[in-house]
Amino acid sequence: MSKRIALLGQPNSGKSTVYNALTGSRQHVGNWPGKTVEKNEGTYTYNGETFAVIDLPGSYGLSGNSDEEVITTDYIRGGQADLTVVLVDASQLERSMFMLAEFAELNKPAILLLNMMDVAGSMGKTVNDKLLSERLGIPVLPFVAAENKDYEKLKELIQQELRSPHCLKSVPVSEDKKDYKAKYQWISEVLDGVTDSTHKKYVLSKGDKRLLSPVLGKFLCLGIVLLGFLVAMIVCVPFMGIGSMIPGILNQPIANLLNGLHVHPWLVSIFSLLIPNTLYFCISMAAFVFGVNLVFGYLEEIGFLARAAYQFDSILSKLGLQGKAVCPLLMGFGCTIGGASGTRVMDNWGQRMLAMAIVWAVPCGSIWSVMPVVANMVFSPVETILVCLGILVYVFIMAWIVSKVFGKSLAPVESRTGMIMELPPYHKAHWKHILKEALLKAVDIFKRALTTVFLVSLLFWAFSYSSSGLLEDSLLYKVGTFIEPVTKFFGMSWRTFMAFLSSAFAKEAVLGVLNAVFTGQNSLVNVTFNAKTTATDTMALAAAYSSMISKPETLAFIFASSFNIPCVMALSTTYRESHSLKWTARVALFYFGCALLLASVVYHVTALFL
Amino acid sequence: MRLTETKPDQEGKITAIGGDPHFISRITSIGITESTPFQTVKNDKKMPVLVYLRETLIALNRKDAERIEVTVNE
Question: What domain count does chain A have?
Fold first, then answer.
């Protein structure tokens, strides 16, 4: 069996960067037995030997009673790791050594990784690693997470230590595990003479003075994030463009080939329409995830997100969240999938689930690209802008509703934890790593999306398939018209209702479905699955649409679709991140119900005026 | 006095931390313990308090900051 190496470190110690760099794509995500805590395991090979790496969960220490801390302590104490790599931030050594002080009493083989030596250096701090190693009795490795040669040194050291392991020879002398004073006392003794600890007064930089000011700072934060999205869009639009061409390019050749082989028409349809379209949706989702993670990876690494968390802490605590939730919520404007996994920064499960539920209310990039098109079919450009503003305003209302409905049970007031976080010094961005991590996430979502999107597409395909190619022969038409009396109550005809249903699958599908049910000039299956992408002629659609649909119905449809379940992958990611089928289903049902209710309110109110 | 009553650039020492064990464990593990010297960096209304201690700039939400008793240097 391969040797196990555990990674232990505080947030911001660069643990996940080291984990990702060591294991690359050879990662496995699972669950710790009986717990809603994610277990990250990976492997790497060095000198022909394979090593397993476990990214231990937890935050700043080990003596708290959170699930994460108990899991981590038990794992190390049980001797399941052959070696523990403890990471500390060399630029804030005294504080981040607390994790090592907590680890000390477990008395297991370890090495100490002095990460962020570059940051420490740029702040004029020096660390005498030889003296530190002598005092601790374990190897101490100065490290820069972006330097490839440092990983070679680390791998070599790990192999060497597994043969002749070292345990800490100096440990804090304390009465019980909650004796924090003794631990910090030990740290200052160990570090005496190792670092230059002259006390300096902290002066905020000019940039920080602006960014942290109560009013101007908030606008600056929002401006920077907006700019970030612009960059993200520029990055992912080419990929999405290529992705959107796939169905058009692949459809005919595959159809011709299969027809020539006299395959059953169903199979032809599946291979020539469904699969290329699944590819398109998956590429588009992966591109969104990539763009959003690229931008937010950058904003996080340079230290901006911590400032944004500081700015929005008070507002978010009114929703039962805290400052750290600012990152996932803002990510949600790009991609709900990214936002849902971005909630990992929150250490309390209930608040994390609540944050995911609220992220769902944030309209993603897809909504912003689809809904204005729909609005523009019946509204003037000025009215379209008003509709978009209306969506933006409703985001706040929905966030408030969700926090009121789920806040009490998910995060009871007494269990809510407020924001306690460090504002790291501004770092230079290590692009290679940001790119790599964004790419890993995009590839991961692409792989997971393939099956999910394919299966849901298959379901929708079965509904919209008709052997004659006529709309009226599809199951979709029959079911749609059958339930129309009910959907009418929500302000939607069967056509818009079907498009609304598809918005829970993927927002990209909405235009295709609308086109199929309104123009009817192509076979429903063809248009829905983008066989003729260029044929999604919005002009023709607009003409057909505006003659059949009123302004109130359009508004009802737009609002219902925007605040529906975001997409199947957001749903599956929320389940994966929360590990709770019950809560994922609850939130999904709630959103679906709320969307219908919203549609009926919007329809009946606006019908009075429009 | 409470940490929330300090002014920017004031320096002092933390004297007492109130709250349940879970809170104490959270706040201690980030480096805030009794007798730690600190410097208040920013303390705006309705915003978290920014304190500098153990070479780290820490943002602390107001509700929790109120539970921290300090003395400031003259």
Answer: 3
The CA-based diameter of chain A, rounded to the nearest angstrom, is 84
A475 in contact with chain B, both atoms CB, cutoff 8 A: no
Name the interface residues of B facing A (CB cutoff 8 Å): 9, 11, 21-23, 25-31, 33-37, 39, 41-42, 44-48, 50, 52, 54-64
Complex ipTM value? 0.94
> Of A65, A102, A422, which has the smallest distance from its Cβ to B58's Cβ?
A422
Chain B within 8 Å of A58 (Cβ-Cβ)?
no
- Determine contact, residues A163/A135, Cβ cutoff 8 Å: no
Q: What CATH number has the domain bearing residue A77? A: 3.40.50.300
Amino acid residing at A12: N
> In this predicted model, what pLDDT tens digit does every residue of A341-385 receive, in sequence order?
989 888 788 999 999 999 999 999 889 888 888 898 889 989 999
- The boundaries of the domain holding residue A237 are 217-365+395-435
Beta pairing class for A110-115 and A140-142:
parallel
- Find, in chain B, the residue whose alpha carbon is nearest to that of A66: B22
Instruction: Check pLDDT > 80 for residue A80.
Output: yes
The residue of chain A nearest to residue B30, with distances taken between CA atoms, is: A60
Q: Give the CATH number, domain containing residue B45.
A: 2.30.30.90
Q: Are A454 and A278 in contact (CB under 8 A)?
A: yes
Q: Are A291 and A334 in contact (CB under 8 A)?
A: yes
Assess A426–B contact: CB distance below 8 Å, yes or no: no
Domain range enclosing B42: 3-72
Residue A386 lies in a domain: no
Task: Locate the chain A residue with the closest alpha carbon to B44.
Answer: A214
Residues on chain A touching B48 (C-beta within 8 angstroms): 310, 313-314, 323, 419
Please choose, from the candidates A571, A561, A545, A548, the residue with its C-alpha nearest in 3D space to the C-alpha of residue A598: A561
Given a contact cutoff of 8 angstroms between Cβ atoms, the answer to whether A570 and A336 are in contact is yes
- Counts for chain B of helices (H) and strands (E), in that order: 2, 5
CB–CB of B36/B54 below 8 Å?
Answer: yes
Residue A374 resides in a domain: no
Q: What is the count of residue pairs from A and B with beta carbons less than 8 Å apart? A: 113
Of A178, A314, A422, the CB nearest to B47: A314
Mind listing the pLDDT tens digit for each residue in A478-517? 888 999 999 999 999 988 998 899 899 888 888 778 877 7
Which of A522-531 are b and which e, b meaning 16 or more Cβ less than 10 Å from the residue's Cβ? bbbbbbbbbb
Q: What is the mean pLDDT of residues A578-606?
A: 95
Mean residue pLDDT across chain A = 87
Neighbouring-strand partners of residue A192: A195
Q: For residues A342 and A225, what is the distance between their CA atoms, to the nearest angstrom?
A: 15
Nearest to B30 among A60, A102, A197 (CB): A60
Say which amino acid occupies A111. Answer: I
Q: How far apart are CA A395 and CA A236, in angstroms?
A: 25
> pLDDT at position A376, please?
86
Position A64 in a domain: yes
Q: Which of A155, A144, A165 is nearest to A45 (CA)?
A: A155
Are A178 and B55 inside 8 Å of each other by CB? no
In chain B, the number of structural domains is 1
